[in-house]
Amino acid sequence: MTPLKLEEVVARWVFFFGLWSDLFGRHRAVVFCQDVSIDCPANWEKFQSSCYLFVRSPELTWPESLTYCRDLFADLVAVESPDEQIFLTEWLRLRDPTLATWYTSGFDALTSGNWLWTVASPGDWWRISNNDPAWVFHDVPQADVASVITDPALVVAPASMGRALAYNFSTIAKAWRWTPVTPDRNRPFICEVPVFRAADVPNRKRAIDYGVIVSDAKKIPAAPVIELEPLDAVFDTTIRYSRNWTSFRCVASGFPKPEYLWHRVRHEAGIEVSYLIDPLLDYRYTQTDGTLTIHDPQSVKDRGEYRCSATNQFGTVLSKKVILNFGYVGDFALRREATQLIMFNGAVVPCDPPSFFPAVSFAWARDAFPNFVEENRRIFVSQDGNLYFSHVETSDEGTYQCVVKSSNAEVGKTGPFFDVAVRRQHSVGQLKIWSSFPKVFPILPVAGDNVSLECFASGYPAPQYTWRRLEGQMPVGFSMRKHDRILQIPNVQIGDSGDYECSVTNVQGTVSAVLTLDINVRPVFIVPLTAQLVDLGRDVTWTCAAFGRPAVRYRWYKNGDLLDYSRIRTEEIGRYQLDGARLFIRSVGQSDEGVYQCEARNVLGTALSAGELRVLQMAPSFRKQPIDAVVYATAGGNVTISCQPEAAPTPVIRWVYNEGTLPLSPRVRLLGTGDLAISPVYPTDQGSYTCEASNHLGVDRSRGVLRVLQGPVINEVAVSDRVPIGHSAVVRCAATADPMLDLSYSWMLNGLPLILPDNPRLRTGWKERRGYLFIDAVSFADAGDYTCVVQTPIATLSHTTRIDAMGPPSPPSGIIPQSDILSPTSVFLRWTDGAANGLDVSTYRIESLTNHLPVWVVLTDIPAAATRVFFRRRSVEVPNRLQPWNSYRFRVLAANSMGFSVPSEASPSFEVPPAPPSRPPVMVGGGGGRFGVLTVTWTPLPPHEQNAPGIGYKIMYRKANSTGGVLEKLVDGNRHRAMVSVGDEEVFQPYEVQVRAINGAGDGPLSEPVVVYSAEQVPQEAPSSVQGVPFNSTAIEVSWRALPDSLDVLRGRLLGHRVKYWRRDWDQEDAWIVLFPSFENRALIKGLDPFTEYFVSVMAVNSAGNGPESEPAVARTYRSEPKEFPMGVRVRGHDFNTVAVDWRGIMTGPQEEPIEGYKVRYWRQGEHVKEAKDLTLPLEFLDGNLYTLLGGLTPGESYNLRVLGYSRGGDGRMSSPVWQFRMVFSNSASPSRLGLLPCLVTTETNFKENAFDSLLYLRHIAFELRFGTSSELSSGFDVILNCSITV
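RE: above sequence
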């Protein structure tokens, strides 16, 4: 038998299904020169160069799906690249919660594994690799292959049927994968069309205003649509006195305005029956439009289901059913028995709440209400109402009361107080998670709920809690509450289903438990109904699809009436087919018009989707959308002339050019929409174009003129650039166009329009640069693809330029620590890099925070080359950097040449097990203290370096330079000092000391040995030969003979001396004592009274205290310093760095020491007077002339100057006011003949030593004196030389 070729096999199979013409008979040879459109049709998804239509309804067999797509001038999807595969699977992941099976164009005709993408032309088919990772059995063990093939019909399907390739969600791979399926089942499918063919896709969708011309959009005739569904109500019976009514509100749109009715829904003998509510028959009901109000609601009468309907001339629509319930909280039991708990063990105290509806919240009071129990790491109030203790303490004894509060109203109930006693014992309960935990609230979670996962464990000390999801990332918006015992998931979704692990840790270890979260879903429509405006006599298919867990069931309504075979007239039954989510009506007529509703329901609720059916019959008309009178096009460009008449049935379109039939060609094409596409446009295409639309009811025409102009041309474009953040950038764009065309520029960033007035950092140029875009202070947000759009009325051009912003990297994310089995103090960190921001990352900085050191510290800096990357996750080992007995959290910073990123989010906690201390104490020393004691001090270990509980210290000591054994002393707790008794005879003796830290896990290393001296004894002798001599009128200099440097005398280390002094007329008890911490045998006592006798004694000092006091000596201070100050002070210029100073002398009184001389005190302006220098002038030096030269001054500097007298009593008062002067020097004279003399500029002012706020503003004036040789000097020269200007 001659083997068949592959094409013949496929042809025979296709013929079997009646599709020969679709595969081989209807492909056309069409050549396309340019894209006519860059957009996809409505409801199609665009990715790269293709448009995709995901068809949920109608579900068809594989051959029917192929026909459906071909009728749209498309194909079933063929996957050509990994990027396309990612796009398709991501769309399915995000938008198909039903996890349906979706047909593609893949087919295996011989069931032999020879898979092909079967696109329109058999010559374009290409093979599908059996090793492609998209297959469902990729990376699946052979034993599991059968379990991942989800279509059991394949087992019994005949080989001649072949196999189709479909997308299906693999529960093993947790991803959308390809799977082989039988081709004869109805399934959703995916169509694909190239973007350049998108304009060929016919637009079969008719809007609700089709065939209607109205000026007000609100008055378009339409059937009612429910805009606001009524909500369930719970009536609070406790507030009847203030609000004795409840209501339901229903809002519908439509024109004419709909009328509302409300029905009470009852179930009788398993049949749903609706009863009209007539407010005229029951005064308790009032209705205003769609709002129904029930007055004085009664539980027996009014509890149940209600439904609203809205009606106008086009039909009736139903709302979903709502329920009226009554809220209440019952009463607690009157008494409770006492409860006994066991110390150091976990315990639970049940609430025993009363009955209630709806939910309540719980609290516990202790000893008195409202003294509420505060939750902490040890005490937990669960949403089940019970009070839990991780371990019991004696402080937990007391009386307790459970309190409940309704979630629906401000009402609560309190239970009885009862005693809780604690039985003492010393054994500690083991760490364990209670068998009823983890648990979920609400018990049956539904998508949209706020879900709480609770975990509780007993153990001593109170454990720490962590949560993780075993597969996938944590839900969006999750948070931890109540010391991490509760994982809160807001607005939970079905994708949050899965296994969640709670781990608890304390010093006893770590235990964990897993909770499987299963989310139920109320029905929600993923394929809703929409209005259908169809031709008379056409077949109509309504298809809806809803998702829900548990699975949904469907019912159909027409104009508010249930639609089933029992209610359809006998003569009409043959035209109707009801098949779950699909309603088929054959050959529709006017009687079929109305509102059709699909109801999806499960035990959690119902959902309704509505669509209006309108049957049309009308001749073609261009009244609403005539062809534009003038259509402009650019030579060489593309143009589409729209032809969109309204007609029913669909008209035949014919185009006329300049009164003659328009010949079609690959360049001039009639699109599936009826539009005319010309690409490229020639100047000869200019002329008159008429679209003629006809059906059996009539003909209509519309005419327009095509004008061909020279289109825009982009002459200057920018090149891609990399710009550091903070710098400026210029994106260039310049174009020209036909002079009669208005040309404008606009900019887009990453496909989105740039609104320049909203961003002051963006601006455009002017004149010939009006197409330029200037960006000031570039930031990361400015990076991306900049598209310059050049627009004229007839054509639009664009050019895209890439601008990358360079700066520090974006922070890493998803930091996950993992332990190193071989090294408990090491950690493996994994993370995902942030954006590189234009530069390669060079370094990663690891920072850590612990429970004992709650500040972020740098752990290490790691070169990027030392890290590894696996599946886009970067990892690195941080070896031996962690401290035992710490709970770490890590964060990572990335760095490049422009700096560090901001820190990443903190990682989950990472526990390091306990271990002995890893380092010795530092700053070991000591000395001093009580006589006969060796005092040892050190810096204790901080909490984060203690490595385990039970910290203490061990002191090792022995006499220095001895061969005796080492003695030990233990110190409990984290102390910093220890005192060791060594005996009274051990005075100031050296000891060799070492200290080590210890904890519950063992001993740490010893510190380096240091020498510490035992305590000292006070000195045994007093200084001798004490004498005092006057220093000035207020000070005495005291001296003495030093004590010998002998341990027998000093009994320790000499720290200095204390000098005791008192006036002769004082009691010795009133004496002053001054410490002089030096080893000198002299001291100066200041602040004494002039010409007064003082007694002075001296004591030696060591760390033990003062030695004996010496015999007192007597000394007298001098008389006072001069009280007067010199007057008549004058300052005159002398040469370029010298001034002459003179003054009048002073006299001293009987209480003053005789004058011994004068001091000229001077300092720079701006300096403090303490920085002054003195020129000391004894009387014998002056020889009666109160005059001196002050030299060494700096030209250009300003000075202050004062004069004072001095004696043995000290310095007298300084002259006043202060003299201020500046030496000004000019060198403009001729150096050959003329010399230069400075002129001193001075000012007198009241001077304050600590501030210059009284200085006058002085404009310095320089005099330049010109003179000749010495023989030419006149008698007036001295006057000019000594000029002094006082301001």
